[in-house]
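hey can u run this one w/ protoporphyrin IX containing FE bound, need the structure tokens asap thx
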Amino acid sequence: MLLPYFPFEERYSFTMGTFPLKETDPLVEVDEHYVAEITEKRRLLAEDHGYYFDALPETLLAQWEVLDKVLRSLTAFYPQHFQLKIEGDHWHWHNRLLDEQLSFVFEDNSSLPFSPLDWVGRQVQEDLLLMAKDEAVSLKAGQLCFPNDWDLGEKFGKSFLDIHTHIPKVLGSMMLTAQKLMERIIAHRPVWRLNWNFKIHNALDMSSKYFVASRKELAEVGPTLTPDTIGERLYLRIERQTLTRLPRSGYILFGIHTYQNTLANEAKDLDRARRMYQVLASAPREVIQYKAIPYFEEALINYLKQNLIET
Ligand code: HEM
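ok here u go:
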């Protein structure tokens, strides 16, 4: 099986890579991992709620807007799995995949078991974050269970640009363009983009609390990988990210759906192997270092080259 999206083009690009999210594109996606990922999400939230969820009280209206958009998108794109009946303020939700039903009063917080963002986040595989309308576009709420090397605590309250201070300097002007996009994105014109990384684990929760241990393991395991072993040992982790302006509150919903696959499964596709090779070969050194690729770079490049020659 191939990943549903593939972020590698002909060569490394310095552009944001955003596209309009069309009406025919779902805001949130459901795949065969749905039940397992929702179960994992709920386990993490039960174990350490404050680590995986946080929200300022001023975000409540935006949270209800997220609930509204997400439930409508689920029922529109996956009517076989989800039903929503709306009778005035009384909403009835039926999630057949989880065999769960809930009746609640729209915008009545006491009618939900959790705050709206926290509840609706437990219905989808996506992480959901809310960025305020303020000039800095700062992070004000989020349910973040499957992050790639970050967590809510370290970014909470920070502006869009401060959130991105660690990223490579060569991407500075791209981030300024992205900041402008964040200020200008208008309601009913959502956008989406893809991000990619290579990981030696397929755990979805790569929160910062695991960073030191996982970097140590990468430093040990990465250099032992060879073109013969790396295909099955390395995962391509991609994020489908959506940005949606919420019409009433003006907040921006940032949704992240993480997908992963072994390098071997992706590289079996000749075109994908070629594009990975070309993007890696043309990416700035800083980006390769930021993404922690040097630990296994030689094996990865040789593996891709070998795949291209043998096919
Ligand atoms: C058009 C919008 C956006 C663009 C173009 C963008 C771009 C990027 C890029 C290029 C990276 C470097 C990571 C990599 O390539 O693997 C990055 C990392 C990151 N992005 Fe974004 N991003 C966008 C929106 C957002 C939003 C709305 C958030 C909100 C929380 C966010 C949070 C992060 C975080 C936490 C990191 C990791 C930063 C670190 O290393 O400390 N991004 N982003």
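Residues 219 and 295 are 6 Å apart (CA to CA). anyway lmk if its weird
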